[in-house]
């Protein structure tokens, strides 16, 4: 067989090239692994469970310290807000009484209104509608008592407040979900003389008193040295309400609100401008 030296050299060249290629790929792989390992060491948490638990514990401590700082800031802001609210929003005795939040007692007036007697001979001669107490009659009496300086009022057995609304249907009174029949009784606490003056100065009440004399409607007014009215026990929600023009709501409320905002702003600025608190220096290491 004839030898071919050029073919042997080609085989040797191919083997050398393959070995070089394998070595190059191995080196690239080792370099990539080393780079990935370095990144893991600097960016990833330790793979050892004990070290990992320690690093997570330190992270929890840092977050807990941040939570404590935020909670302290919230508490400080809450205290400032409560202080402003206590100074501005505490109602006076007049508001408490008018709201019906507390029971009241004192001198006052009792007014009783009633339908004409059932056996009245006038029932056959007059319109029956004239012989009964109407909603506007009660409203006139109560408005006159308020105008006369009433401090608190009760209709039947319920305290009357600013959101109270009653309605007469026929000869039946509906108030705060309850139904009443005549006679209707209104009690008001205040100076009896002033309350009587308020009744006498009301044209609507004067008209009712005149009809009471003419057709027999019930009308009785009695002064008392002491009346006791319970606190209001119903709901105070409003569906809608309007305030007439020119009527001031809670006098001084706007000024107090502005003062509270200024105080809160000054408090916030003082906290921002205050230097950060520094703790005591930690223990120093021993010199070698």
Automatic annotation (TrEMBL):
Residues 250-288 are annotated as: Disordered. Keywords: Coiled coil, Signal. Residues 1-31 form the signal peptide. Residues 53-80 form a coiled coil. InterPro entries: DUF881. Residues 262-276 have a biased composition (Low complexity). GO terms for cellular component: plasma membrane. Belongs to the UPF0749 family. This is DUF881 domain-containing protein. It comes from Cellulomonas biazotea.
